[in-house]
Structures are given as C-alpha cells and as structure tokens.
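*** Protein under study ***
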Amino acid sequence: MASSDTPGPYAHWMLREIHEQPQTLADTFARYVDGAKFRDDICAPVREWFAAIEGDLVIAASGSSRHAGMVAEITIEDLSGIAVDVEYASEYCYRSEKSLKDAAVLIVSQSGETADTLAALRKARAAGHRSLAVTNVEASSMAHEATLSVPVEAGRERAVPATKSFTGQLLVLYLLALLAAESRGALDVAQLRTHLEAAATLPAVIAAQLPGWEIAMRKIADQYSDIENFLFLGRGVHYPIAREGALKLKESAYLHAEGYPSGELKHGPNALVSDRTPLVMIATVDRNDPDSIERYEKSLHLMSDMRSQGANILAIANQGDPRVAMLATNTVSIHETSEWLLPICEIIPLQLFSYFMSINNGIDVDSPRNLVKAVIEE
C-alpha cells in the first residue's frame, strides 16, 4: 500500500493523485448511492432543496471548480429543466441584489475555504438565499455555513493542480443533477436507475484505461516538448473540459493555452492556428444521444477544415473511431459512455498531458510558482 507521507510509488503527488481517481469516484459514489438507488438518509434533504427552487440556480466558483460548475450548468438544465447561471465567485460578490432575487446558490470549492467563494456564500446567506456547498473538506467553513453540504470523497489532495478533487466534483454535481431531475419528476425510476448504473461503472472503466493513457500522453508530450501555445476546443458539456485542460497546462507547465467552444474557433482564434499552435480537440460522442451525435459531426467537419489548413491536432476520441484518427495528428482514445459521464473520462488524459509537459520543462509540478492550493486571501 502506498505511504501517506510520500507520493511513492509515483514520482510526484500529482501523478499519484491522477491514479487515485478511480478510488475517489468509487468512494464518492458509495457515499450517495446504494446499489442503483440514492441513499435516502443522505439524499432526501438534497431532493427537498432542489424541489423548493422557485427562481434560478446560481453556481458560484473559481478556477477548476468553476469549470466543474459549467459542466453542472448544462447537465442540470438538460436533465431537470432548472435554469442555471454560473458566476465567477469573485464577481458574484459584487452583483446587485436586484439581479439575485429568489436565487438558490450552489457553491463549489476544493478546500471549502477559498476567499472569494466563501464571500459569495456569505453574500447569498445575507440575502436570504438557500445554499448548497460542494467541497472536498467536510469540516470546512463553506460546508459548515451553507444550508446543505454535499462533500466529495477525494481525501487530501497535496499537489496544487486539482486532479482527483475535480473529477470528484464532476461526479457529485452529476448526482446532484439526477436528484434535481428526480425532484422535478423529469426522470422516472427506470431512467434514474440507468443513469446510476452507468455511473457505477466509471471507477473500473477509468482504472482499466489509465495505464494506456499514461503511456500515450508521455509519448505525445515528448513530441510537443518545444511547443509553447495551445488551443483547446470542445462543444456543449465538453467545452468546460477544454477550459480545464488549458488551465492545467498553464498552471502545471507554464505554457500559454486557451479553451474555446469549438464553434468560436473561426471567429478570431483561427488566426493563431499553425503547426506551432496545436489544437487539442475533444471529439467524443454518445451514440445513444442525437444531440451528442450532431455535436460530434460538427467537430469532425471543423477538424477536417483545420487539417486542410495544416493544423497539428491532438484529439480525444472514442476508442476505435477511424474518422477522428484519419484527421488528427495524434489521438487518445476513451471508452464510450453517456454524454454526461464523458467529461469525467476526457479530463484525465489531459491531466496526464499537463503532467508530462511539466516534467519535460523541469517544473516542480506539485508546487507551481505563484500558486497555492487554496486561495484564502483575495
């Protein structure tokens, strides 16, 4: 068993924590779900919290947690019909009370102590808004001060770049979306069971893929060792994952990277595309989801246009997808799963890519310059 005092058998905490993600997902899922049913002792208050929402739901968060909130925005809206607005926590604090009328507020934070997110929670409380906190520290200030606390079971995360806490947040927020849909009668018992059964397979599915992702991303990072600029692209629920992939590269490897919705590339950023500014394109698909298929076809069309333009493309795609493989310079494959669970799988190869790009640049990946694990002062 690995020691709790050193990252061994891995070279760094970040790599160890990437590999701990299957266990994080399993522990988090088990906290809220028993078999293929939500645990009523824990989840009944959450159902009631969502059922009581009369206005909009505001998600306030910063950094990686905000990207998790952006995934939740689409998931909650599509599954439950509740209107969701995602705010930078640092900006929410200064919003007019008139614009926040009747809002319920969901705050997301790894530490539960992030200064601007805690300020956002306190503003919500002062305005009389009901709140729900998703944190990785059950005894944190946010967990204590919010109306309800829904913890992530990631355990202590030592590396500054968020890895297992981020995927844990994604899973908790997905479960919250299902509870919201259940509370509104938007999912019947059979549909809910199907969603939960799919989520239950995630730990094993990801554990089986991790060794292959590590080998692939090590080789690809070597190919890109002298590249300093990247553009990350994704559509729909995958756009926040593009943003998170770009953020990981910035904070881990000190490289310039930006995340865009795929459809925005030709509205300006395309001027930057060249062999020296590769595209990292998320091109996965859920074959059982017509909307996902439509997004996938549009992504393929864009990929074809960019390849004819001479772009260097790193694609995240379904395993065994020949269409993406023909267009991309490099392809990393993931097992197909539902549209709502794909983001949890997609980010892990991108975490590994950032890790190896950092190592190649001789950076202390666990403690990047100018960054701290929890920003407790604005």
Notes: The chain is about 50% helix and 15% strand. Residues 18 and 163 are 6 Å apart (CA to CA).
